[in-house]
Design goal:
The structure is a homodimer. Chain A is mostly beta strands. In chain A, the strands form six sheets. In chain A, strands 10, 11, 12, 13, 14, 15, 24, 27, 30 and 31 form a ten-stranded antiparallel sheet that branches. A ten-stranded antiparallel sheet of chain A has the order 16-17-18-19-20-32-29-28-25-26. In chain A, strands 1-2-3-4 form a four-stranded antiparallel sheet. In chain A, a hairpin with a 5-residue loop joins β16 (about 340-345) and β17. Chain A starts with 12 loop residues before the first helix and ends with a strand. β9 of chain A pairs antiparallel with β9 of chain B. Chains A, B: Its EC number is 1.4.3.-. Chains A, B: Keywords: Copper, Disulfide bond, Metal-binding, Oxidoreductase, TPQ.
């Protein structure tokens, strides 16, 4: 195997060790804990010539340096610890930047959550409050620690973790404790001390209070209603017959390390602790399309206005890490067919490489018909089937799961599909009560309304790095205008503008408002218009929280559905680099505002631009989402718009029975006859 | 086989013959031509008790009469013919209604189109004009007849067919003649006489004119650019490896005639000449959901304002028939896996049953993950895969294809997916010119802008026939309102109204406006709210044509995205029963207006209601749509909203390697190892 590591490749295990070894001396004797050792992607101005050589099949004149971004915490002697970020040039074997991130916090991980839970349950005052709840004898208490979403009530420079209490009624580790939210809440400090304990509102007009109420035994549910794990449920239905995918000649994709090729597509697969799967240098038939594609952030704010519930508002990438929380897809049979897995690499707290196996799966899928035409005069039909390539990751963030798929098509389209599944977050309520910001899902259990907001970062390089964003609408031509020929009132045309400055834009399907990323320097020889790729947005409500709320000020990206910025190295996160207990002013809107008068940074016409699409769902739970939610799908697309000179899938082979081997089913009997004539 | 024919079953071949035999005597000696012999579905008030008995497994007290709807034309002696519609009670063997549809026209079919083309090309004046075009020696001229979309210029009580001229440059019947639109246009009368001939505008400001221009030889294209048929193109790519679906234990669905059962779903499959596939008595786990689901109409108006192009506006169901134009899916390998086909039955012009084989295909498909949760404390993952049932039809309407799929899920959801594919309709343009209402797709060829508007008719019976439409929005709670506790500015609630009267409604994703079909008489025992099903609309621009245009007045349904009406027997078509050359005033808006003051018909709260969803796409062609378009997908959904008491797919078996038999791919080599542990 070559010793050459592509500049987009995630850090290898030996690079992780090397980075840790170079950083350790700077914290000698301070017991540093490594939170992150990850690739610091090369500056784009270094990558552009490198990629150009690579595309031409020539060795690069210069290879960008391999640099690691390292985050370290060191415990304080008596007070809070310190949080540092360092850049380590692995080629030069030198730490080239070191920054003390005062007031910032690293992500929260499951080992810290376990330590918080242990500290919480080990606190005598907590135990006393639990006793006052008079729980059933079989109950065991669970603490679910959450990041504290800034609400203005506490000093956020100190890390505080919220502890939400639940219980299991049966002694099975997979019992669904979310069915039993308890009337108890606590805050735990950085030093793992319980700093506050209180009881939660059980009715609409109640507030936080000091008085424990015994657990209402009427809230005990049948396991049939509360459990999802097969071991705790009645037997499964037996009606589902197996369905298998076979590819007797193997898959159509080829991989060489992290380089993937499939049906004229090529790209580099990346993976990091925070964004999970990232795609680099996405090309089609040798033409450049996207420099980078990634989920940049997500935000899940809850709509219950009563303290302390406004502290539930999760930045699952920035706070927790979509890479760190990625599922091992091999264990769960999450993919079907002929599957290639990719591993990820993280770090232990002592700086050793930690393998995250099978965090990305890659496989083909049939997606129905790609194109068809039947000449009605001859009855000759030509059909091609749409084969797609799927790159999938799944994250678990406490109660919820999110499935993220990139899908590539033979029509040169890309789709990004998000599915939300897992378990609703719950709170308690008195039996018989209702609240206007939640759905009762079991006696005494309410699932509060909340939003899921995702932001897809699209760094285009459509036939090159000088791109523009064209916004087009379809408008009826006027009637009764002597200057306009529209005698039958049916004419319509399009109007468009090219965006000149960074900013946020909104969707409007009533005008067929379309967003096209174009290259004004490359004109399609047939249509006479610039080549481009069009966004197929997912229409959804933007952030409901008030603009002056911390939710809004910390997220920023939830204000508009489409943002456009001028490319800046390392500008990857639309709610800012450090979201944990952030206080606002670090997101995409603030960045835009800060440079609005600097044309060298603010202008986005015929420049290196980045498009950020915010989409998601306002999730007002229904009972069908309980006890585990059937996946809710949200899809974004990107498709060529006058980029090619015709249908790029025209040479896809026609669909034939010889290849498909479909089977005829006759009236319940499987007859085995051939399905079709071609 | 039982002699019992279910009331929802399409007419059998013998019933078709019987209907013809009963009608013929009424037109003795008049050479009647049968256009339609189809089931007239029983009145709902007769079906309700019948279905109730059926659901209880008891024989029905009374079976609704089998009635045929018959449309007949008789030629006129010297002038235009006459068009009749009759209802024939097949049980009583009697014609029970007969109506002369003065001023109305039946659909246009391919045999009539062939007759029109023959008449056109056989006309000496047409041949003289063709000669003036000085076409290349190898050219053969094609006439593509289209229905005349009313523009106010002609008497629509007489049938007129528009003739658009194209040519083939190579002598192959599957050559793409749409690549060569010709400068010639004609009108043909009912009696197959060419009544008008003119030449078309070639520039933006030109108008219809008399002067032929010789064909511009620079418009000759390479076959590589203009052809789609594999025999006329370079060899296909060879990179796509076969992908097959196997179900070693057979499919999970069962059919008994037209009755289909799958994964707690049950329904009756219908099919008719006009709507194609219809679904009846759709139930889940024995509970009633939808009385009827169907595509009710579609409208494809073109946006070129210059005469005669406003005559291009196709009602593909009303004018042509989605059943009549349904593809035989077996010939084209349009479906994959284990497939059951359903046939349809039409009539010949002499009243003999005409089999339409394999017009509906039924098969399962894997749709990724249904639900998943991993307990992060134990690392135990539970995954279920989503198996869906697909019922597919495809229609060819001259140049275009439309693929219509109903998809049923194990989460008790239904999705309706439309894909547009086939060939763009083209017109001519001077080389180098542009028009603001079209895209140049080849030298001298413009593909005009147009819209595709579909209307899905949803006749709900959610736990019974008294339903309501609840429209709900998600609203931020106010800040700085002393009456409202929202101290952190993050609270949000929902507000809703129940629609009281028939009318048209609009979508608004910015408010998360949701449309739920509910039964106010059935309260969910857990949530305390009425059971319901929620619409997942497809967001698209409504009709662009001016409200006073004929396009708008004839379609009506394109004005709003969601319509609600009170159920009326036989009220099935939102642009009216007879769309061919219609003049307006027959659609859903007119029906609503006519009875707006009659509460016994206009009230829609807790009544038998019908919901109609208009959706589609404003299609401004891109070159990638040429010469045949990669399918464009539009999806509508219906999902339970507090209808059940939990996730209806909770008992779906977990995904296991034993059942899935996935295969591990290691770095380009197919290793054959098992994919996952479970």
């Amino acid at each position: 195997m070559s010793s050459f590591t592509h500049p987009f490749n995630p850090l290898t295990p030996s690079e992780i060790s090397k980075a840790a070894a170079l950083v350790c001396p700077l914290f000698a004797g301070q017991s540093p804990s490594f939170r992150v050792i990850t690739l610091r992607e090369p500056p784009k101005h270094e990558m552009i010539p490198f990629l150009a050589s690579e595309h031409r099949g020539e060795p690069a004149a210069a290879r960008p340096a391999r640099v690691a971004r390292v985050q370290v915490t060191v415990p304080g002697d008596s007070g809070p610890g310190k949080f540092f970020e360092l850049l380590v040039d692995l080629d030069q074997r030198a730490v080239v930047r070191r920054e003390h991130l005062a007031g910032k916090h690293p992500y929260i991980d499951s080992s810290y959550m376990k330590a918080v839970e242990k500290a919480c349950l080990g606190d005598q005052r907590i135990q006393a409050e639990i006793n006052k709840l008079e729980l059933p004898p079989s109950a065991s208490v669970i603490v679910e620690p959450w990041a504290y979403a800034t609400d203005g009530l506490n000093d956020m420079s100190q890390r505080t973790t919220m502890c939400w209490f639940y219980m299991r009624l049966v002694s099975n580790e997979d019992a669904n404790y979310y069915a039993y939210p308890l009337d108890l809440c606590a805050e735990v400090s950085e030093q793992l001390q319980v700093t506050k304990i209180y009881h939660l509102p059980s009715t609409k007009d109640e507030r936080i209070h000091e008085d424990a109420k015994p657990f209402d035994r009427r809230k005990i549910q049948s396991m049939d209603a509360s459990e999802y794990h097969p071991n705790l449920r009645p037997p499964r239905r037996t009606t589902v017959k197996p369905y298998q995918v076979v590819q007797p000649e193997g898959p159509s994709f080829k991989t060489r390390g992290n380089f993937l090729q499939w049906e004229k597509w090529s790209m580099h697969i990346g993976f990091n602790y925070r964004e999970g799967l990232t795609l680099h240098d996405v090309c089609y038939d040798g033409r450049s399309l996207f420099y980078r594609l990634s989920l940049a952030e997500m935000f899940v704010p809850y709509g219950d206005p009563r303290a302390p519930f406004p502290r539930k508002a999760a930045f699952d990438l920035g706070n927790d890490g979509a890479g760190i929380n990625a599922n091992n897809l091999r264990l769960g049979c999450d993919c079907l067919g002929l599957i290639r897995y990719f591993d990820g690499w993280h770090t232990t707290s002592s700086g050793e490489p930690l393998k995250m196996p099978n965090v990305v799966c890659c496989h083909e899928q049939d997606d129905g018909i790609l194109w068809k035409h039947t000449n009605f005069r001859t009855n000759n039909a030509v059909v091609t089937r749409s084969r797609i390539l799927v790159l999938q990751t799944i994250i678990t963030v406490s109660n919820y799961e999110y499935i993220f798929n990139f899908q590539f098509g033979q029509d040169a389209s890309i789709h990004y599909e998000v599915r939300a599944t897992g378990i609703l977050s719950t709170a308690l309520i008195n039996i018989g009560d209702r609240v206007p910001w939640g759905t009762v899902v079991a006696p005494g259990v309410v699932a509060p309304y909340h939003q899921h907001l995702f932001n897809l970062r699209i760094d285009p390089a459509v036939d090159g790095h000088s791109n523009s964003l064209q916004v087009e609408e379809s408008n009826p031509m006027p009637v009764n205008d002597p200057m306009v020929h529209n005698p039958f009132g049916v004419g319509y045309t399009t109007s468009s503008q090219i965006i000149g400055k960074e900013g946020g834009l909104d969707l409007d399907f009533t005008k067929n408002r379309s967003f096209k990323i174009i290259n004004e320097n490359v004109i399609n020889p047939i249509t006479g218009t610039p080549v481009g790729f069009k966004l197929l947005p997912s229409y959804s409500q933007m952030l409901l929280s008030h603009p002056q709320s911390y939710h809004a000020r910390r997220s920023e990206f939830g204000e508009h559905a489409v943002w456009i910025t001028r490319y800046q190295d390392d500008e990857l996160f639309p709610a800012g680099r450090h979201t944990m207990q952030s206080t606002g002013g670090d997101g995409i809107a603030s960045a835009i505002k800060a440079r609005q008068h600097d044309a060298s940074k603010a202008s986005v016409r015929n420049e290196d631009i980045v498009i950020w699409h915010t989409f998601g769902s306002t999730h007002n739970p229904r009972i069908e989402d309980w006890p585990v939610m059937p996946s809710e799908k949200m899809t974004v697309g990107l498709k060529p718009a006058n980029f090619f000179t015709g249908n790029p899938g025209l040479d896809v082979p026609v669909s034939t029975q010889e290849k498909n081997k479909s089977v005829l089913v006759e009236n319940d009997a499987q007859s085995g006859s051939v399905c079709c004539r071609l």
